[in-house]
Amino acid sequence: MPGFRAERIAEMIHKELAQRLRLEIKDPRVGPISITSITVTKDLSRAVVLFLPLGGGDPSDELSAGLEAAGRKLRGPIGRALRLRHAPELVFRFDEHHAQAVAVTRLLDKLQREREEDEEDEA
To answer: Could you please report the per-residue DSSP string of 62-74?
Structure first.
């Protein structure tokens, strides 16, 4: 199966990274986040971490800078914990797909409420 190893590594990185961000990173710029997915390249040189700040909203520049610094700090320990010869570079990206889905859901909810209000007015 092509890419199966990369998927397995991504799952292991997800677990290890979530735990280490919570317990080891004391940088005040790094607030609570939710890791939505991790994609590892086939050559295992790079892991793109998609995240959302807890509480919603767009990430601040401080959060992004803090995560970038945390990624550099955690690359080695995660590689050793997973027994990888070469640890992948951790690249953090804001997960815009979830943000767009939330916006669409809010819009649909608003339309549904308006439709219900119109039906009540007609009755």
So the answer is: HHHHHHHHHHHHH
Kindly list the domain boundaries of the chain, sorted by start residue: 4-95
| pLDDT tens track for 50-84 | 998 887 777 888 999 999 999 999 999 999 999 99
The CATH number of domain 4-95, selected from 3.50.50.60, 3.40.640.10, 3.30.70.1170, 3.30.300.20: 3.30.300.20
Helix (H, G, I), strand (E, B) or coil at 86: coil
- Using DSSP bridges, classify how beta strands 89-94 and 46-53 pair: parallel, antiparallel or unpaired: parallel
- The residues, ordered by sequence, that sit 6+ positions from 39 with a Cβ below 8 Å of its Cβ are 10, 47, 48, 50
pTM comes to 0.76
